[in-house]
Here is the input.
Amino acid sequence: MLIHNPRGWELPERAVTPEALALGRRHLIAGAAALGLASPAARADTPPPLTPDPRFPPGRALTAEKDAETYNNYYEFSDDKDLWEDAKSLPLRPWTIAVDGMVAKPQTFAIDDILNKMPQEERIYRHRCVEAWAMTVPWTGFPLRRLLAAVEPLGSAKYVVFQTAMLPKVMPGLSQPWYPWPYVEGLTIDEAENDLAFVATGLYGKPLPPQNGGPIRLVVPWKYGFKSAKSLVKITLSDKRPAVFWQSIQPREYGFWANVNPNVAHPRWSQASERLLGSNERVPTQIYNGYGAFVASLYADRMTEPLFM
Ligand code: MTE
Here is the structure.
């Protein structure tokens, strides 16, 4: 894995077609550089491309950028998927994110300080919405546990609670009083410290667009997409399990854990397969969205809990 310090969007190479093609291009570029064929300007100014973390091969073609960025769930804006233009009104600067609660060093970070301090990585992750559509996209960002380490969690902290932005002037969905705003999500501390739990600040080599949760969001790819809270403003460590957004609205359909499982149907539809965004192709759903090797052990002692809703 190559880790260095460009900002989230400084990824000169972008491959949105199959992985083999992307890797082929990388080899070509590396070969040209070795032969001294890269232009002097490119050598001086262009940061080396980030290499997607090889521990998490996507196993299928990337979703076209346009599809991932024009079909979104973001209820603060709309319950319609076609909200990307409206979301452009979200001001992404100035932006701060407070990390507080049961920690030794609570801090409020300006987004640009986070981008400067946290070494950026690329992760190509599968994303599985509870509505049975899926995408495969390259996020840029850093492991959540790095941010937690900066505030020094206390031993008594058991949960990490994520709160997302509430800006009524630009978010028309907030005027719908039947939703329990703000959008809150949560993880256990061991889930939050897992290798896969990621904070995204970029997508397809560019700053994370507002409709996908810019400027900063959570990405937990083994869980249904609603756990991956967008546009974070606060992260609080707590010894209490939080009331989370969709569970508060409909506890018979949505739970705290929300781990992907093809064999546990949603009360109103099957979860056995998923539609790949941008096509009509359906593929079988995988348990933990295919990330069981990394996360299944987190749940060994919790089998009596409703882990898959
Ligand atoms: N975060 C906030 N703040 N508001 C939302 O409505 N929707 C969730 C999740 N995070 C949501 C959110 C759901 S249901 C999904 S599937 C994903 O965001 C969608 O992410 P995407 O639009 O980047 O594909």
